Amino acid sequence: MSTLPDVDEVIRQVLGKKKYQHLDADLVAFIAGAEVKKRTSLKEAVKATTNKLHQVAWAYWNDQPAYSAHAKELANLPPDIHAGDSRAFCFRLMQEHASTRERLPILSDFYHALLDDIQPVNSILDLACGFNPLALGWMPIDPTAAYTACDIFQDMTDFLQAFFDHFQKNGKAGLCNLLTRIPQEKAQVALLLKTLPCLEQTEKDSARRILTGIDARSLIVSFPVRSIGGKEKGMLAHYSSQFESLLSDLGWDYKKFLFESELAYRVERGN
Ligand SMILES: C[S@@+](CC[C@H](N)C(=O)[O-])C[C@H]1O[C@@H](n2cnc3c(N)ncnc32)[C@H](O)[C@@H]1O
Questions:
Q1: Which residues line the pocket of ligand 1, CB cutoff 6 A?
Q2: pLDDT in tens, 122-167
Q3: How far apart are the CA of 3 and the centre of ligand 1, in A?
Q4: CA of 27, closest atom in ligand 1
Q5: Is residue 2 scored above 90 in pLDDT?
Q6: Are 125 and 182 contained in the same domain?
Q7: Which residue's alpha carbon is at the smallest distance from atom 12 of ligand 1?
Q8: 78 Ramachandran zone, left/alpha/beta (phi>0; psi -120 to 50)
Q9: What is the pLDDT at residue 234?
Q10: Domain check: are 11 and 142 in the same one?
Q11: Are 207 and 200 in contact (CB under 8 A)?
Protein backbone atom coordinates (compact mmCIF):
# COMPACT_ATOMS: atom_id res chain seq x y z
CA MET A 1 0.00 0.00 0.00
CA SER A 2 1.50 3.39 -0.96
CA THR A 3 1.36 6.23 1.58
CA LEU A 4 0.88 9.88 0.76
CA PRO A 5 3.75 12.31 1.42
CA ASP A 6 3.48 13.88 4.89
CA VAL A 7 1.71 17.23 4.41
CA ASP A 8 3.21 18.83 7.55
CA GLU A 9 6.70 18.04 6.30
CA VAL A 10 5.86 19.51 2.87
CA ILE A 11 4.64 22.73 4.56
CA ARG A 12 7.73 22.86 6.79
CA GLN A 13 10.11 22.45 3.85
CA VAL A 14 8.33 25.00 1.67
CA LEU A 15 8.15 27.66 4.41
CA GLY A 16 11.84 26.94 5.14
CA LYS A 17 12.80 28.21 1.67
CA LYS A 18 13.85 31.88 1.59
CA LYS A 19 11.56 32.64 -1.36
CA TYR A 20 8.44 31.35 0.42
CA GLN A 21 9.24 32.21 4.04
CA HIS A 22 6.90 35.23 4.17
CA LEU A 23 3.94 33.53 2.51
CA ASP A 24 0.67 33.00 4.35
CA ALA A 25 1.03 29.56 6.00
CA ASP A 26 -2.66 28.88 5.41
CA LEU A 27 -2.21 29.20 1.62
CA VAL A 28 0.90 26.98 1.72
CA ALA A 29 -1.08 24.36 3.70
CA PHE A 30 -4.02 24.63 1.29
CA ILE A 31 -1.85 24.03 -1.78
CA ALA A 32 0.33 21.36 -0.10
CA GLY A 33 -2.84 19.52 1.02
CA ALA A 34 -4.03 19.30 -2.59
CA GLU A 35 -0.61 18.37 -4.01
CA VAL A 36 0.19 15.51 -1.60
CA LYS A 37 -2.90 13.68 -2.86
CA LYS A 38 -1.47 13.67 -6.39
CA ARG A 39 2.21 12.82 -5.62
CA THR A 40 4.03 9.75 -4.45
CA SER A 41 7.18 11.25 -2.90
CA LEU A 42 7.93 14.07 -0.50
CA LYS A 43 10.33 15.63 -3.02
CA GLU A 44 7.68 15.69 -5.76
CA ALA A 45 5.07 17.14 -3.39
CA VAL A 46 7.44 19.94 -2.29
CA LYS A 47 8.30 20.72 -5.93
CA ALA A 48 4.66 20.75 -7.05
CA THR A 49 3.69 23.00 -4.10
CA THR A 50 6.48 25.50 -4.81
CA ASN A 51 5.63 25.49 -8.55
CA LYS A 52 2.01 26.35 -7.82
CA LEU A 53 3.02 29.01 -5.26
CA HIS A 54 5.37 30.51 -7.80
CA GLN A 55 2.48 30.82 -10.28
CA VAL A 56 0.01 32.44 -7.89
CA ALA A 57 2.39 34.48 -5.72
CA TRP A 58 5.64 35.29 -7.48
CA ALA A 59 4.55 35.66 -11.11
CA TYR A 60 3.76 39.36 -10.55
CA TRP A 61 7.19 40.37 -9.27
CA ASN A 62 10.43 40.77 -11.24
CA ASP A 63 12.46 40.90 -8.04
CA GLN A 64 11.93 40.58 -4.34
CA PRO A 65 10.96 44.13 -3.20
CA ALA A 66 13.58 45.84 -1.02
CA TYR A 67 11.17 46.41 1.88
CA SER A 68 13.69 47.65 4.41
CA ALA A 69 15.07 50.26 1.96
CA HIS A 70 11.48 51.22 1.03
CA ALA A 71 10.56 51.58 4.71
CA LYS A 72 13.55 53.88 5.36
CA GLU A 73 12.63 56.06 2.39
CA LEU A 74 8.98 56.13 3.51
CA ALA A 75 10.01 57.30 6.99
CA ASN A 76 11.72 60.37 5.46
CA LEU A 77 8.72 61.45 3.36
CA PRO A 78 6.39 64.26 4.43
CA PRO A 79 3.20 63.00 6.14
CA ASP A 80 1.08 64.39 3.27
CA ILE A 81 0.22 61.63 0.79
CA HIS A 82 -0.39 64.27 -1.91
CA ALA A 83 3.03 65.93 -1.59
CA GLY A 84 5.15 65.61 -4.77
CA ASP A 85 7.78 63.34 -3.14
CA SER A 86 5.12 61.09 -1.61
CA ARG A 87 3.35 60.67 -4.96
CA ALA A 88 6.63 60.01 -6.78
CA PHE A 89 7.53 57.33 -4.19
CA CYS A 90 4.15 55.58 -4.50
CA PHE A 91 4.22 55.74 -8.30
CA ARG A 92 7.73 54.25 -8.43
CA LEU A 93 6.89 51.40 -6.05
CA MET A 94 3.67 50.52 -7.89
CA GLN A 95 5.87 49.70 -10.89
CA GLU A 96 7.35 46.76 -8.98
CA HIS A 97 4.12 44.68 -9.06
CA ALA A 98 3.18 43.69 -12.63
CA SER A 99 -0.53 43.92 -12.05
CA THR A 100 -0.47 47.28 -10.26
CA ARG A 101 2.04 48.62 -12.83
CA GLU A 102 -0.31 47.94 -15.76
CA ARG A 103 -2.88 50.27 -14.19
CA LEU A 104 -0.52 53.26 -13.85
CA PRO A 105 -1.28 54.90 -17.24
CA ILE A 106 -5.02 54.88 -16.42
CA LEU A 107 -4.85 55.17 -12.62
CA SER A 108 -6.70 58.42 -12.08
CA ASP A 109 -9.31 57.76 -14.83
CA PHE A 110 -9.86 54.26 -13.49
CA TYR A 111 -10.77 55.35 -9.96
CA HIS A 112 -12.76 58.41 -11.02
CA ALA A 113 -14.82 56.36 -13.50
CA LEU A 114 -15.58 53.69 -10.90
CA LEU A 115 -16.07 55.82 -7.78
CA ASP A 116 -17.29 59.30 -8.79
CA ASP A 117 -20.98 58.43 -8.92
CA ILE A 118 -21.08 56.55 -5.61
CA GLN A 119 -19.71 59.41 -3.49
CA PRO A 120 -18.94 59.77 -0.67
CA VAL A 121 -16.78 56.64 -0.35
CA ASN A 122 -16.12 55.96 3.33
CA SER A 123 -14.73 52.43 3.43
CA ILE A 124 -12.78 50.15 1.11
CA LEU A 125 -11.87 46.49 1.36
CA ASP A 126 -8.98 45.75 -1.02
CA LEU A 127 -8.79 41.96 -1.40
CA ALA A 128 -5.62 40.37 -2.85
CA CYS A 129 -4.36 43.94 -2.97
CA GLY A 130 -0.82 43.62 -4.36
CA PHE A 131 0.63 47.16 -4.30
CA ASN A 132 -2.74 48.76 -5.14
CA PRO A 133 -3.09 50.47 -1.69
CA LEU A 134 -0.19 52.70 -2.80
CA ALA A 135 -2.72 54.21 -5.25
CA LEU A 136 -4.69 55.65 -2.30
CA GLY A 137 -3.60 59.20 -3.18
CA TRP A 138 -5.25 58.82 -6.61
CA MET A 139 -8.58 57.53 -5.30
CA PRO A 140 -11.51 59.93 -4.88
CA ILE A 141 -12.41 58.75 -1.39
CA ASP A 142 -13.02 60.48 1.93
CA PRO A 143 -9.61 61.36 3.53
CA THR A 144 -10.69 59.51 6.70
CA ALA A 145 -12.08 56.45 4.86
CA ALA A 146 -11.35 53.07 6.45
CA TYR A 147 -9.10 51.03 4.14
CA THR A 148 -8.62 47.32 4.81
CA ALA A 149 -6.14 45.54 2.54
CA CYS A 150 -5.00 41.93 2.44
CA ASP A 151 -2.75 39.64 0.43
CA ILE A 152 -0.59 36.56 0.98
CA PHE A 153 2.86 38.01 1.81
CA GLN A 154 3.56 38.99 5.41
CA ASP A 155 6.48 41.27 4.49
CA MET A 156 4.30 43.07 1.93
CA THR A 157 1.38 43.62 4.32
CA ASP A 158 3.81 44.81 7.06
CA PHE A 159 5.15 47.39 4.62
CA LEU A 160 1.61 48.45 3.61
CA GLN A 161 0.75 48.90 7.29
CA ALA A 162 3.81 51.16 7.69
CA PHE A 163 2.58 53.09 4.61
CA PHE A 164 -0.90 53.65 6.15
CA ASP A 165 0.62 54.64 9.49
CA HIS A 166 3.12 57.07 7.96
CA PHE A 167 0.40 58.94 6.04
CA GLN A 168 -1.95 58.75 9.05
CA LYS A 169 -4.55 56.82 7.13
CA ASN A 170 -7.28 54.78 8.75
CA GLY A 171 -5.79 51.65 7.16
CA LYS A 172 -5.23 48.05 8.17
CA ALA A 173 -3.17 45.56 6.16
CA GLY A 174 -2.99 41.85 6.90
CA LEU A 175 -2.78 38.34 5.54
CA CYS A 176 -5.62 36.51 3.84
CA ASN A 177 -6.02 33.35 1.86
CA LEU A 178 -9.26 34.10 0.03
CA LEU A 179 -9.67 30.43 -0.81
CA THR A 180 -10.30 29.56 2.83
CA ARG A 181 -11.37 32.79 4.52
CA ILE A 182 -12.84 36.05 3.33
CA PRO A 183 -12.26 39.03 5.64
CA GLN A 184 -15.55 39.78 7.37
CA GLU A 185 -15.12 43.56 7.65
CA LYS A 186 -18.21 45.32 6.30
CA ALA A 187 -17.28 47.89 3.63
CA GLN A 188 -19.01 50.23 1.25
CA VAL A 189 -16.76 49.16 -1.62
CA ALA A 190 -14.77 45.94 -2.06
CA LEU A 191 -12.02 45.78 -4.68
CA LEU A 192 -11.17 42.44 -6.23
CA LEU A 193 -8.87 43.62 -8.96
CA LYS A 194 -7.55 41.15 -11.54
CA THR A 195 -7.64 38.39 -8.95
CA LEU A 196 -10.45 35.95 -9.78
CA PRO A 197 -8.45 34.31 -12.62
CA CYS A 198 -5.49 33.90 -10.25
CA LEU A 199 -7.67 32.28 -7.54
CA GLU A 200 -9.26 29.98 -10.09
CA GLN A 201 -5.79 28.67 -10.99
CA THR A 202 -5.69 27.18 -7.49
CA GLU A 203 -9.35 26.30 -7.10
CA LYS A 204 -11.61 26.10 -10.11
CA ASP A 205 -15.06 27.70 -9.74
CA SER A 206 -14.14 29.55 -6.52
CA ALA A 207 -15.42 32.90 -7.89
CA ARG A 208 -19.08 32.51 -6.88
CA ARG A 209 -18.26 31.48 -3.30
CA ILE A 210 -15.78 34.34 -2.86
CA LEU A 211 -18.07 37.00 -4.33
CA THR A 212 -21.06 35.96 -2.25
CA GLY A 213 -18.90 35.88 0.91
CA ILE A 214 -17.85 39.55 0.71
CA ASP A 215 -19.76 41.99 2.93
CA ALA A 216 -19.82 45.13 0.73
CA ARG A 217 -22.51 47.17 -0.96
CA SER A 218 -20.52 47.66 -4.19
CA LEU A 219 -18.00 45.19 -5.56
CA ILE A 220 -15.43 46.37 -8.08
CA VAL A 221 -14.17 43.32 -9.92
CA SER A 222 -11.69 43.55 -12.76
CA PHE A 223 -9.89 41.34 -15.25
CA PRO A 224 -6.70 41.68 -17.26
CA VAL A 225 -7.17 42.16 -20.99
CA ARG A 226 -3.69 40.82 -21.77
CA SER A 227 -1.51 38.09 -20.26
CA ILE A 228 1.55 39.06 -18.16
CA GLY A 229 3.57 38.49 -21.35
CA GLY A 230 1.41 41.07 -23.21
CA LYS A 231 -0.67 38.75 -25.43
CA GLU A 232 -4.40 39.43 -25.91
CA LYS A 233 -5.39 35.76 -26.47
CA GLY A 234 -9.17 36.44 -26.51
CA MET A 235 -9.11 37.21 -22.77
CA LEU A 236 -11.61 40.07 -23.00
CA ALA A 237 -14.30 37.94 -24.64
CA HIS A 238 -13.62 35.01 -22.33
CA TYR A 239 -13.69 36.89 -19.01
CA SER A 240 -16.65 39.08 -19.95
CA SER A 241 -18.88 36.21 -21.02
CA GLN A 242 -17.93 34.05 -18.02
CA PHE A 243 -18.36 36.84 -15.46
CA GLU A 244 -21.55 38.29 -16.93
CA SER A 245 -23.14 34.87 -16.94
CA LEU A 246 -22.26 34.47 -13.22
CA LEU A 247 -23.72 37.94 -12.47
CA SER A 248 -26.92 37.13 -14.31
CA ASP A 249 -27.16 33.87 -12.34
CA LEU A 250 -26.75 35.80 -9.08
CA GLY A 251 -29.25 38.44 -10.22
CA TRP A 252 -26.82 41.30 -9.43
CA ASP A 253 -26.89 44.64 -11.31
CA TYR A 254 -23.66 45.91 -12.77
CA LYS A 255 -21.99 48.62 -14.79
CA LYS A 256 -19.14 47.70 -17.13
CA PHE A 257 -16.02 49.83 -17.76
CA LEU A 258 -13.48 49.00 -20.42
CA PHE A 259 -10.04 50.60 -20.09
CA GLU A 260 -6.97 50.23 -22.27
CA SER A 261 -5.39 47.69 -19.92
CA GLU A 262 -8.27 46.39 -17.79
CA LEU A 263 -11.92 45.33 -17.91
CA ALA A 264 -13.80 46.39 -14.77
CA TYR A 265 -17.29 45.88 -13.35
CA ARG A 266 -19.00 47.76 -10.55
CA VAL A 267 -21.52 45.35 -9.14
CA GLU A 268 -24.31 46.59 -6.88
CA ARG A 269 -25.36 44.06 -4.27
CA GLY A 270 -27.51 46.59 -2.45
CA ASN A 271 -27.12 45.07 1.08
C1 LIG B 1 -3.17 39.76 -10.41
S2 LIG B 1 -2.58 40.22 -8.86
C3 LIG B 1 -3.67 41.57 -8.48
C4 LIG B 1 -3.11 42.54 -7.47
C5 LIG B 1 -3.97 43.79 -7.21
N6 LIG B 1 -5.33 43.42 -6.87
C7 LIG B 1 -3.97 44.71 -8.43
O8 LIG B 1 -4.76 44.50 -9.35
O9 LIG B 1 -3.15 45.65 -8.46
C10 LIG B 1 -3.22 38.94 -7.85
C11 LIG B 1 -2.89 39.09 -6.38
O12 LIG B 1 -3.54 38.01 -5.68
C13 LIG B 1 -2.72 37.60 -4.62
N14 LIG B 1 -3.16 36.23 -4.28
C15 LIG B 1 -2.90 35.07 -4.91
N16 LIG B 1 -3.54 34.04 -4.32
C17 LIG B 1 -4.24 34.57 -3.27
C18 LIG B 1 -5.09 34.01 -2.26
N19 LIG B 1 -5.36 32.70 -2.23
N20 LIG B 1 -5.64 34.84 -1.34
C21 LIG B 1 -5.37 36.18 -1.37
N22 LIG B 1 -4.57 36.76 -2.31
C23 LIG B 1 -4.01 35.97 -3.24
C24 LIG B 1 -1.30 37.72 -5.20
O25 LIG B 1 -0.31 37.81 -4.21
C26 LIG B 1 -1.40 38.99 -6.05
O27 LIG B 1 -1.01 40.15 -5.34
A1: 27, 56-57, 60, 99-100, 128-130, 132, 151-152, 176-179, 193-195, 198-199
A2: 999 999 999 999 999 999 999 999 999 999 999 999 999 999 999 9
A3: 34
A4: 19
A5: no
A6: yes
A7: 128
A8: beta
A9: 86
A10: no
A11: yes
